[in-house]
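Course assignment 3, question 2. Fill in each field.
Student: A.L.
Task: Predict the tertiary structure for the chain below.
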Amino acid sequence: MHRTFLFVHRIYAKILLWAAILAGFCAFAIMCVIDANALLRKLINWPVPAALEITQSLLVVSIMLPFAYTLMRREHVNTVFFTSMLSSETRRRLYFFWSVVGFLLFAAVTWGTFEYALRSYRMNEKIWGATIQFAVWPSKMAISFGTLLLTIQFLLEAIGTALIRTFHEPEAHTEIHGDV
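Answer field:
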């Protein structure tokens, strides 16, 4: 059972890594669109059509997709002042509890955002840019996909904490090294 879980966890970690890499490419694309827009506007007075809408859509992807990867790497904001005074078993149980709460919360968020994105897709929701209409539903789907990745990661965190006693044990003194 442990071996199967660790195999699934490793495969999912690769998926999350690719999602984070995609988010990084989106951040780079935002920079390119903004630079091109600024240069074209200043040099020939011709801005990139829908530059604002493109950057807004890419920003959603670059923010939402790496959340689950950050949780998996345990590089999220984490307060250890209170929990450092607790026993290892109590910390493990608390982590399990909050992983289950995170799973339930983000499962509800994923469901709600997916319904919202699906409604946007069905009605072909668009916004007007300066020159063109721009579809809104892909950004809404990206939010739903990002929360789905986070929901699955919270579930894996809960299962891993329940199955493997040392699954959530942080490396020694991570808070001293700034990895909090």
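Instructor remarks: The mean pLDDT is 84. The helical segments are 2-44, 51-64, 66-72, 88-122, 137-163.
Grade: pending
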